[in-house]
């Protein structure tokens, strides 16, 4: 895993709107979902990129294993 650390404010800038990067966090780990067509423009159904999605996963139709296919950028501090 990457040893880089980012604040919630830095994560918020990677929302697919302000920059080309599309990142989300889950359980303290930040993932780059830029390559996913499901995150085009920084939105995935009612979820927005640049946020910690830990609390929202309970409402998702998939499990946390979905994050395994995305590169880890770093951790959330």
Helical amount: under 10%
Q: State the domain count.
A: 1
How far the N terminus sits from the C terminus, by CA atoms, comes to 15 Å
Which CATH architecture is right?
Answer: Roll
Instruction: Provide the CATH topology.
Output: Flavocytochrome B2, Chain A, domain 1
- What's the order of the H and E elements? EHEEEEE
Strand order of the largest sheet: 1-6-3-2
- The counted number of beta strands is 6
User: Which residues sit in consecutive blocks of at least 5 with pLDDT less than 50?
Assistant: none
CATH superfamily: Cytochrome b5-like heme/steroid binding domain
> Which percent band covers the strand fraction?
15-25%
Task: Give the overall pLDDT as a whole number.
Answer: 90
Q: Which CATH C-level class is it?
A: Alpha Beta
Rg over CA atoms, rounded to whole Å, is: 11 Å
The main β sheet shows up as: 4 strands, mixed
Alpha-beta content class: mainly beta
List the helices and strands and how they pair.
Layout: E1 5-6, H1 8-12, E2 23-26, E3 29-32, E4 43-44, E5 47-48, E6 72-76
Parallel strand pairs: 1-6
Antiparallel strand pairs: 2-3, 3-6, 4-5
Provide keyphrases for this structure.
77 residues, four-stranded mixed β-sheet, 6% helix, Flavocytochrome B2, Chain A, domain 1, mainly beta
In short:
This protein has one helix at residues 8-12, and strands spanning 5-6, 23-26, 29-32, 43-44, 47-48, 72-76. With 77 residues, the chain is mainly β.
Report on the structure:
The chain has 77 residues and is mostly beta strands. The chain has a single domain, classed as Flavocytochrome B2, Chain A, domain 1. 6% of the residues lie in helices and 25% in strands. It contains one helix and six strands. The strands form two sheets. A four-stranded mixed sheet has the order 1-6-3-2. Strands 4-5 form a two-stranded antiparallel sheet.
């Amino acid at each position: 895993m990457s040893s880089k650390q980012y604040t919630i404010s830095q994560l918020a800038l990677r929302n697919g709107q302000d920059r080309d990067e599309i990142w989300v966090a889950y359980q303290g780990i930040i993932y780059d979902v830029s390559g996913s067509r499901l995150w085009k423009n920084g939105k995935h159904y009612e979820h927005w990129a640049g946020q910690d999605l830990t609390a929202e996963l309970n409402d998702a139709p998939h499990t946390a294993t979905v994050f395994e296919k995305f590169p880890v950028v770093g951790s959330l501090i």
